[in-house]
Amino acid sequence: MHFRIKKGLDLKLTGEAMGKIVSPYSSHTFFVHPSDFRWLTPKLTVQVGDAVDIGSPLFFDKEDERIKIVSPVNGTVTQIVRGEKRVIQTIVIERDNDTTSREVQFDAPISAEDYQSILLRFGLWPMLRQRPFSTIANPDTLPKALFVPCFDSAPLAPDYSVLLQGRGDEFLSGLRVMRNLLPDVPMHLCMREGADNALFEAAEEVEKHYFSGPHPAGNVGTHIHHIAPINKGESVWYIDPQDLATIGHLFQRKELCFDTTVALTGPCVTEPRYVHVPRWADLSELLATSTPSDNVRMISGNVLTGKQFDEYPAIRFYDHQLTMIAEGGQREFLGWLRPNLKKWSFSHTFLSWLAPKRPFSFNTSLYGGRRTFMMTDIYDKVFPFDIIPLSLLKACLVKDIENMEALGIYEVDDEDFALCEVVCPSKMECQQIIRDGLFFIKNDK
Amino acid sequence: MSFLQRFSEKAGKAFEKGKPLHFLSSLYDAIDTFTLTPADTTRSGSHIRDAVDMKRIMITVMIALCPALFFGMWNVGHFHYIANGIDAGFWQSFGYGFLRWLPLVVVTYVSGLAVEVTFAQIRGEQVAEGFFVTGFIIPMIMPPDVPLWIVAVATVFSVLFAKEVFGGTGYNFLNPALVARAFVFFAYPSVISGDSVWISHAPDAVSGATPLAILVNGSAQQMPSAMDMFVGTIPGCIGETSKIAILIGAAILLLTQVADWRIMLTVMAGGYVTAALFHITGTCPVPGYEQLLMGGFLFGAVFMATDPVTAAHTSTGKYIYGALIGILSIVIRMLNKGYPEGMMLAILLMNIFAPLIDYCVVQRNIHKRQNRTKSIHNSR
Fold first, then answer.
1. In order of start, what are the domains of chain B with their CATH numbers?
2. Nearest residue on chain A to B371, judged by CA atoms?
3. What domains can be seen in chain A, in order of their start residue?
4. What ipTM was assigned to the predicted interfaces of this complex?
5. Are the CB atoms for A414 and A435 separated by under 8 Å?
6. Contact B46 A336 (CB under 8 A)
7. Of A17, A371, A419, B145, most Cβ neighbours within 10 A?
8. CA distances from A297 to A31, A260, A276, A320, A365 (A)
């Protein structure tokens, strides 16, 4: 099926990762952040000083002990950093040797249960996520569909054909694992129309869809909404193609390897490029050597939904992009009155809209104070869902579960509201509002 | 760091919590962010934001209002000198109008902002920019000679009872500028109705009847030409007379996407169709399009009905909301001789109904979703 997304917005940042060359990077230290997994309460299985191997569990989900997060390297746990209320922030592992893969043994799987138990046992299950709530998929339920978003439309997003370079077989093998894991569940591959989709076209026993148009055309939420909208009580699973390749690698070669390819992007990066990194490797050195300026915000993910690195910088589990943009906050005399040819705005209130091809200098300035909802029609322009965004946001704010459900909260996730947040002149934190709404519903059950 | 920034930061210390001037911190914050853009940066989520904020949107609306305002100033002077039999030049007329307008706008801003700042301080919030436009519009929809104390009372009433009691800017369901006008209209009808109020300091013998009043009560010979009504050389409120100037403002609002085209279009369409029907059935002597040039119809359609807070919020709702404003304003104008200025009442009435329209649109969306869920459960 073909889908043309009309509402949306492509932010034209500079600093896209070009070329197809992937440079390797590694580090001696690894930082595992349990907060990469939304609303998961970690129960540690290691202590400081414990030796860990690739694939040995670090912690499990308090609600489901089968869901384990495993070590990406052979090494020793040197530190467990705790934050407020003793929440586990980071598990620091010093690695012993350079290996990033480990051979494992398991019997050839026959049934869906066999596949499930292997994925759970080797810590690959967390790669499967579910909507609503964007948490790790619940192994006890069966989804109504599985989605594989085969492109990313976020600003400066990497090209999946580079991320999956030389891993085509593994990707297809991963898809076959999913077919065996979910025998009767429809699988949807969602591709960018007109892009280099050779790798994905080779897939069998899947439904192929093509999306065109601006961001969020590549968001899995957009795909789900247009192909198999979620009703109350249903769930949909989704998985990233690189993670499928990792799963394929395990089943093809009986080898566990958590390496991943990420795009180093952004206007502040001297040499935007693709980098091959072991998952959760300490990125301090890479980040420090990639930019000449000091006042830079370093983000795991893209500028819309990413998270700023803390003092233990490692790429988040589900990200495949690093972005660096200039910090803002410069004050400008009578800024609201100036014609402003350099500032970017979705609205046409700045003269800059007459010169859209001019490169804009994006930074992290908020450009205004927080107000109530006033420009009531602005969200509709960037929100390609059959959902009324303002009503849903208001229902979330007042924690009215009945209305949230009626207005379609299960069909969205905070990332779907990222563009609403960008264009909002009242500087509403739309993503946080939706996240809080989802959290409230989840806890209420 | 500029001199201004250093000065502002230094001065700001006196307004911090626990300091003697803390009770004026909202005022300080308003002045500080007025002169210098805020230094805040994003914390999470979307790390980059649109450069637009409410200040920018409000200043855009004010710029769009300027052509109508400038023409209105000249027009006030123009009619004043004609009525008094003085031959005045362009700048003399403009200067007279400016001097009539200036005290009105000063009184409006001082009285309105005093209420706004007080409430912002009580709530511990920043001063919202909504009043900048409201305060700019109020003098434009008043007759030139309206007593200043009435303007002050009307402004305070509208800010207080149309806005602050409901929670402030963004929570109001009535357009505050129109509430101010309605307040004057019902509380002090003599200063805003009749034939004598529309020309500044006119001798008693001169009638300054507006085309609308002529249409309702007068004879067809007195009616100014459609061209005069379009250009704006007719008596009326300061801002409403020149349709060309209002259309320039409309173009600015539409190009900058500050106002919604759906509302403007449907108000005009609704108004035209209704007026044409009255003309065809013989109730009204003037053709449909001329009615759109009379009174505050166009000003209301462009600047008042499009207020995003008090209009319907949903896209579908906007079509219904706009069309009903157009229809109702002409119906009130034609069928109720006591209130020829139907636009004000039509917009206020539809402001009240906008939440209901939105409710219906939202319910339709909800039902669609519920039906989808039901059909799935039935098929299982």
1. 54-365 (1.10.3430)
2. A231
3. 2-257 (no CATH), 261-343 (3.10.20), 379-444 (no CATH)
4. 0.90
5. yes
6. no
7. A419
8. 19, 22, 22, 17, 11
Q: Do B40 and A407 touch (CB under 8 A)?
A: no
Task: Give the position of tokens 């000449």.
Answer: A292
Least CB–CB distance from B54: residue in A231, A297, A371 = A371
The B residues from 109 to 128 touching A (CB cutoff 8 Å) are 126, 128
- Residue entry with tokens 């003085």: B86
For residues A171 and A219, give the distance between their C-alpha atoms in angstroms, rounded to a whole number. 20
Mean pLDDT per segment of 10 residues, for chain B of length 380 residues? Answer: 78 80 81 83 88 90 95 92 88 93 95 92 84 93 91 95 90 93 91 79 73 71 81 88 94 93 95 93 84 89 93 94 95 82 92 96 92 74
For A:79-118, CB contacts with B below 8 A are none
Chain B residues with beta carbon closer than 8 angstroms to that of A368: 37-38, 49, 52-56
Taking the Cβ of residue B313 and every Cβ of chain A, the question of whether any pair is shorter than 8 Å is answered with: yes
